[in-house]
Specification:
49% of the residues lie in helices and 9% in strands. It contains 13 helices and eight strands. Strands 1-2-3-4-5-6-7-8 form an eight-stranded parallel barrel, surrounded by five helices. Helix 5 (122-132) packs parallel to helix 6. The N and C termini lie far apart (79 Å). It binds phosphoenolpyruvate (PEP) and manganese (II) ion (MN).
Length: 376
């Protein structure tokens, strides 16, 4: 086992893919999973005709729940070879252990990425790093599923320490509890900080896994470009609705082209109109507001459940002891956090009022129903 020191400056080289230059935006596209040879090649052909040079396809799929499609494995490596032969695109796939690395290298895969679930596991990342020693190809490291910048950097350091210099980070958002607008919250602050610490490390955004649905993809792409990130990796499928994994978030190659052409590419150089601190701060505020709304929506759902419970158990909605407790507890917390308690009281008065209203609706729905029954 090699002793790895943390690194202040990453040595990064431009990717050595003949004929490909790393001009912004670097674009990687392809299906979440290679499903069949026909689907892989059909997607690749259209993407290539549109000028895409880097093709992605997952072969080993780490799935949250057992029973979902776990990828075609080694068989798909031959399909990627065919893609390369026929279209001259460079191909890449996700590796989650040493065996995947050996197989992918054996079949001449051009670039690799480490998935979010793997980045969160230093043992797995070290195993991959050891398997990569001596190899020279681009390795892209996705952020871990949890919002932990140090863990992300740790994984990048492990791969760097194995001698890999063609590096990049992929920002794919961070998971949160409950259903939100985003599948994985972008928390832009984290990739911004990574970029600040390692300005020479290319940083791509994966709008597909952030958004989790097609609608939000253009907006996430634009935000990444406004932050001067290096590029995008977008899940693209010849027939997205029929995809065996991540169907809701994949786009057709034609739609991808529309999205990429609709983006504004602002000039990053000083002297023009550079992105400024205010933009960064506003983006952080937007981020936090989105999280607040998601949380409030979760809170209201729970209030509704409480409404049902009170109805079934014949309890009044207003429980003043509980209400006083909430206000006292939130005030104390506000004080500890250096937030004006009067402000927090006001916020929670409104929240409580909304919660009472929701519970009222629950009770009255039943009342209205029984009134109707009585009248019949
Ligand atoms: C993927 O790229 O298909 C994937 C599994 O992504 P992530 O590791 O970001 O969840
Ligand atoms: Mn996917």
């Amino acid at each position: 086992m090699h002793k790895i020191k943390s690194i202040h400056k990453l040595e990064c080289e431009a990717w050595k893919l003949p004929g490909f230059d790393m001009k912004r935006p670097v674009l990687i596209a392809g299906p979440c999973s290679a499903e069949t040879e026909a689907q892989t090649l059909a997607t690749a052909r259209v993407l290539s005709a549109q000028g895409v040079k880097l093709f992605r396809a997952g072969l080993w799929k780490p799935r949250t729940r057992p029973g979902a499609f776990e990828g075609v494995g080694v068989e798909g490596l031959k399909w990627l070879q065919k893609v390369k032969k026929e279209t001259a695109m460079f191909t890449g796939t996700e590796v989650a252990n040493a065996q995947h690395v050996f197989e992918a290298l054996k079949y001449g895969i051009d670039f690799l990425w480490i998935g979010a679930r793997t980045t969160a596991n230093p043992f797995a990342v070290q195993e991959i790093a050891d398997a990569l020693r001596g190899a020279d190809l681009p390795v892209l490291i996705k952020n871990p599923i949890n919002p932990d910048l140090e863990l992300w950097i740790g994984a990048i350091e492990r791969i760097h320490s194995a001698g890999i210099r063609q590096l990049a980070a992929i920002h794919r958002g961070f998971s949160t509890y409950g259903k939100n607008d985003y599948r994985n919250h972008p928390q832009w602050l984290i990739p911004i900080e990574l970029h600040r610490r390692y300005p020479n490390l290319p940083l791509l955004t994966d709008p597909s896994h952030i958004a989790g649905n097609r609608m939000l993809i253009p907006q996430v792409c634009q935000q990444a470009m406004d932050l001067n990130f290096s590029g995008l990796i977008v899940e693209t499928h010849i027939n997205p609705d029929e995809a065996w994994s991540d169907a809701a978030q994949q786009v057709t190659p034609e739609r991808l082209l529309e999205i990429v052409q609709s983006l504004h590419y602002r000039n990053a150089s000083i002297g023009d109109t550079p992105r400024n601190l205010l933009d960064d701060l506003r983006m952080q505020i937007d981020d936090i507001d989105n999280q607040l709304i998601d949380l409030l929506s979760e809170r209201m759902k729970i209030s509704k459940e409480i409404g049902h419970y009170k109805l079934q158990n014949n309890i009044t909605i207003l429980q003043s002891r509980r209400y006083n407790e909430i206000i006292r507890d939130r005030n104390e917390k506000a004080m500890r956090k250096g937030v004006d308690p009067a402000f927090i009281s006001k916020v929670f008065e409104h929240i409580h009022e909304a919660s009472v209203l929701v519970q009222n609706e629950v009770m009255n729905a039943r009342n209205n129903e029984s009134n109707k029954q009585d009248r019949l």
